[in-house]
Amino acid sequence: MRSWDQPNKKRLHIEIIPMIDVMMFLLVFFILISLNVIPALGIKTKLPGANHSQTLKPQNNAILTLALNNRLQLDGKDIDEQSIVSQLNELKDKKNNLVVIIRSDKGVEVQRLVSIMDLLKGSGFNSISIATHNKRS
């Protein structure tokens, strides 16, 4: 009687190392997103520097960005100068003690910054801050 050797069946196995690599990449990506290390969308500005700047708590803030070429954004959305007050009044109704933080590029003319601040003060916004980066760090 003749017998044939049964071929050895190879067991299938899952490569786990590439799966671990992908999971680590996703973990790092989501950590960076949650910590805001990856910059948010909006106008890129070069803030002026100051040695004695204060850190503001991130509550009840509205960020008004003044950029070059007369661009203006409120909380990352393009806006024109005529609708600044109405949009900020809507935010003021939603948030108590609204603090307006002006992020002005260091190349923006001082007169434009002063006129925006004058418009806000004249409309009843008393808590206005100018964002800077700390020169000491």
TrEMBL record:
Belongs to the ExbD/TolR family. PANTHER family: EXBD MEMBRANE COMPONENT OF PMF-DRIVEN MACROMOLECULE IMPORT SYSTEM, TOL-PAL SYSTEM PROTEIN TOLR. InterPro entries: ExbD (IPR003400). It is a single-pass membrane protein; Single-pass type II membrane protein. This is Biopolymer transporter ExbD. Coiled coil: none annotated. It comes from the Bacteria. Its main location: membrane. Keywords: Cell membrane, Membrane, Protein transport, Transmembrane, Transmembrane helix, Transport. It is found in: Cell membrane. Pfam families: ExbD. The lineage of its organism: Bacteria, Pseudomonadati, Pseudomonadota, Gammaproteobacteria, Celerinatantimonadaceae. It comes from Celerinatantimonas yamalensis. The chain crosses the membrane at residues 12-38. Signal peptide: none annotated.
